[in-house]
Amino acid sequence: MCADNSKIQVLLESSDELSFVRKRFVFGVTIDYKAGRNMPDFPTAAAFLEILTNTALEVVVRDFIFEGTPFVFRDEPELLNTLQRELANALQVVPNNIVIVGSAKIGFSLSPDNFPRNFSDESDIDVVVVDESLFDRMWRGILTWHYPRRRTGLAGAELSWMRGRRRDIYSGWFRPDKIRYGGLMFPEVLTPVRDLSTQWFNAFQALSLLPEYAHRSVSGRLYRTWDHALFYHMDGLRQIKALKQ
After folding, report:
1. CA distances, 171 to each of 158, 165, 183, 219, 227 (Å)
2. Which ranges in 119-155 belong to alpha helices (H)?
3. Of 3, 68, 124, 231, which sits with the fewest C-beta atoms within 10 Å of its C-beta?
4. Is the Cα torsion angle 119, 125, 131, 132 positive or negative in sign?
5. Residuewise pLDDT in 10s, the chain (245 residues)
6. How far apart are CA 77 and CA 68, in angstroms?
7. Peptide bond before 116: cis, by omega within 30 degrees of 0?
């Protein structure tokens, strides 16, 4: 069920945090933005809406979603380093290019359909992984499979599969573990892509072997650049912002 305007209006009216201009150092740039007085590390949904109303979406994403200690690890912040290290080793990426997003990051859902549902013991942990090399490996493998088939054309399952990959590439992100290969001809050409899908699946599944993550599902998206990740999360906040107007 989508978040409705009445729920968001109640959140705004219940906030007693006054606005003021605060400077923060965000991605190498000092930015002024309005925030609540004595703003906690994890703002309430009402306080977050106030920030969302008065702040550039790019700043909100970078300052509140991509940076800082995740809500899920607020009592044990070192667990973020553990997660980054484990995934970085398994995927051969830079640890700092791995961040937790969504409700596990801020304490409530940032999905337009579920805002502001609180993070709970049953909630998943969503992860962003940014790596141009990994993304391009998948892209190159898909092109290697597709180009010889452009003249003859695609139909059925192959056409549907290729349309899905085009959407992925256009948006700048993949869910490697969710790509399916059934019904495709010459699947051996896609071996590099399938191998990366398996590597991705195994990397996240291995987290469940650690006691710190055994009771939660952890999943991730692969973005080509930080800009692609930024655009995606800005769009979600834009929808939440539109709901309250």
Report:
1. 20, 10, 24, 18, 11
2. 132-146
3. 124
4. negative
5. 444 544 444 344 443 333 333 333 334 443 343 443 344 578 999 999 999 988 999 999 999 999 999 999 999 999 999 999 999 999 999 999 999 999 999 999 999 999 999 999 889 999 999 999 999 999 999 999 999 888 778 899 999 999 999 999 999 999 999 999 988 888 899 999 999 999 999 999 999 999 888 888 999 999 999 999 999 999 999 999 887 76
6. 10
7. yes
At how many degrees (to 10) do helices 132-146 and 191-206 cross? Answer: 140
Written as six digits, the tokens of 17 are 């945090």
Residue 29, SS3 per DSSP: strand
Question: Which amino acid, residue 58?
Answer: E
Residue 183, judged by CB atoms within 10 A of its CB (0-12, 13-18, 19+), counts as exposed
